Amino acid sequence: MNEMTGFVVASVVLAVIVLGFVLRPLWREKPLAGAGVLLSLGLATGLVYALVGTPNALDPARRLPGDAFADAIAQLEAELERNPNQVDGWRLLANTYASIDRPKDAQAARERALKIAPNDPDLLAQVAEARSIAAPGHIFDAEGVAMLQRALAQQPMHQHARWFLGIAQRQAQQPAEAAKTWEPLLAVVEPDTVAGLREQINAARADAGLAPLAPAAVDVASVALTISVSLDPALAMRMSKDAVVFVIARRPGGPPIPVAVRKLPAASLPQVVILNDTDSLMPTAKLSQLQSIEITARVSESGDAAQRKGDFHAVPATVQKGQAAAVLIDRVVE
After folding, report:
1. Does residue 120 sit in the same domain as residue 241?
2. For residue 114, is pLDDT > 80?
3. Phi, psi of 305 (to 5 degrees)
4. 98: which of 33, 106, 176, 179 fits an S-S bond (Cβ 3.0–4.6 Å)?
5. Against a cut of 0.85, is the pTM above it?
6. Which of 111-125, 152-166, 188-202, 230-244 bottoms out in mean pLDDT, i.e. has the lowest?
């Protein structure tokens, strides 16, 4: 293996191992997004080679067998020591330190990167956040606030910088300013984040003596189904108080994996349920993309998503997007 290939391989090993720790929640919730981040960092580590040149530390006689991870870190540290003006190398090193619980080293590496790229919005937000984490009470200090403001001057809709600046303003007893900082985020955050963000904004507005935000307009394109779900009274008498109901939407004639699911306490039945894209399980298979949808509902005593003998269920029905529908849970899984 030549030196260039060795460094690239070590870099990819480093990226994969680091991301195995960093992206565990993302792999579980959004596997495609996790794969995208892994690919991006893998490419970035290859770029580090192009930036820093051929590392002498790759001499096979000097490598530690079976310790590719530590070796890759040591190589990157050595190259950055020899050639320190490489912002992407410092970024990678900072992320690596953070993943192995070396926060002070991670902060130092980010600050080195920031000296090279003093107006980089990502670095400014990261360094400001790290300063607050290290501070008593996790307070954003004046320098951290200035960094966040610089980040937003470069990229006004930088989500992390805008969110952290709002937190800093809340800490400084400036609720009206915090609400004003956060409100533009409503147009750009993920749909499943909107409700929580609106709650924080309205809390800040209340503290400032302002009226809450007007109710959000319903995005008709994303509201795929309005379903009235009811349970046969005879079955309701046999149901425990801890049972749950799954309201399920699938592609007609497609795989059994649901496109969207809502889980509710079965005791809440009858109930009208609105399924939309926030209930979709995969970002590439959204409920609003379907014109024809198979719907059903199932009561589970165990609380498990998998169907079990003795569960109650409804006969599946097929409806068109935008149509109201009704399902009656009146069957027992044999």
Report:
1. no
2. yes
3. -75, -30
4. 106
5. no
6. 188-202
What is the spatial distance between Cα 106 and Cα 66, in angstroms, rounded to a whole number? 25
Q: Which two tokens stand for residue 4?
A: 């260039």
Q: Would residue 214 count as lying in a domain?
A: no
Ramachandran angles phi, psi of 229, nearest 5° = -110, 125
17 CB-near residues (< 8 Å, 6+ apart): 69
What is the three-class DSSP state of 327?
strand
**Model confidence pLDDT, tens digit, residues 48-101:** 444 444 444 434 344 434 466 677 788 888 888 888 888 888 988 888 888 888
Q: Which of 178, 207, 236 is the last residue of a domain?
A: 207
Structure tokens at 94: 């900072």
Amino acid letter, residue 85: N
Cα separation, 181 vs 271, in Å, equals 37
How large is the average pLDDT for residues 311-332?
A: 90
Residue type for 105, please?
A: D
User: Is 24 in the same domain as 135?
Assistant: yes
Least confidently predicted of 106-115, 116-125, 212-221, 260-269: 212-221
Tell me how many domains the chain contains. 2
Tokens at 315, concatenated: 């006969």
- Same domain flag for 74 and 173: yes
Range of the domain at 76: 3-207
One-letter amino acid identity for 209?
A: G
CATH of the domain at 83: 1.25.40.10
CA 251 to chain centre: 26
Residues 10, 69 contacting (CB under 8 angstroms): no
Q: Is the pLDDT of residue 242 over 90?
A: no
Residue 182 · residue 200 · CB < 8 Å: yes
Rounded to 5°, the CA angle 35-148-80 comes to 60
Query: Would the CA dihedral through 247, 249, 252, 253 be positive or negative?
Result: negative
Say if 218 falls within a structural domain.
Answer: no
